[in-house]
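Incident review: delayed structure delivery

Summary: a single-chain prediction request sat in the queue longer than the usual turnaround. Root cause was a stuck worker, restarted by the on-call engineer. No data loss occurred. The affected request and its eventual output are reproduced below so the record is complete for anyone auditing the incident later.

Affected input:
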Amino acid sequence: MVGTPPSTQKDQPTIAPALVVPRLIVGLGNPGAKYDRTRHNIGFEIVDALAKSFPDVSLAPNKRFQGATGEFRSAGERIVLLKPTTYMNKSGQAVRAVLDWYKLEPTAVLVIYDDMDLPTGRLRMRLSGSAGGHNGMKSIISHLGTKEFPRLRVGVGSADKSGDRDGAVVSHVLGRFAPEERKVVDAVIPMAVDAVDLSLRKGVERSMNLYNGREVDH
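Output delivered after worker restart:
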C-alpha cells in the first residue's frame, strides 16, 4: 500500500489576516473654549467632522464615559465616537470606560491626535506604536495596557525648540494655526474623515495604503 505523502508547506491553505476594523473612534483634545481649534485639539475637530458626515449623529455629554459620545452604524456594526472631556493627560480613563461598557478589545480603538513630528496636514495611520511623547497617548496606553491599537496621527508641524524646549512645545500645541496653516488643516480634515470612513468599510491597512503620505494642495 502506498502511503499518503506528507503535506508540504505549499499544500497548506493560505489564511488571510483578519481585517482590523475600528469600533470606537477617539479624537483627542482638551475641553473648553480656550482650547478650541488649537493644534492639540485637531482630534476633536476630526471627530466633529466625522459626526457631521453621517446623518442623525450628534455628540452629547456622557458622564459614564467622561466625554462626549455619539453612535452610528457602518456595515451593520455599531460605531462609537468619543471626545474625552478629562483633559488630555487623562484621556485613557474615558477610553477605558467605553471599552469596558461595550466589551471591546483595544484593537477596536482608533485614536486621532496631533503629531509634531509630521508636517502640518500630513496624515499617518498605523496599527500600533509608542506614545511618541504625546500625553494623551501615554494615558491611553497606560489604561489599555498595550500599544497594539490603531491610531491616526495628524501633522501640526514642529515647535521652535531653541531656548526653553518644554515651554516652546506647550506653547506650540496649545496655540492656534497660523492663517496659511489653517487653510491646510481645513483641507486635510475631510481627507482624514475619508481615511477613517475607509477603515470602517475596508479595514485600517487598506486606509493606510491609500492615505499615508498623501498631502493636500498648499
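Verification: The chain has six helices and seven strands.
Action items: add queue-age alerting; document worker restart procedure.
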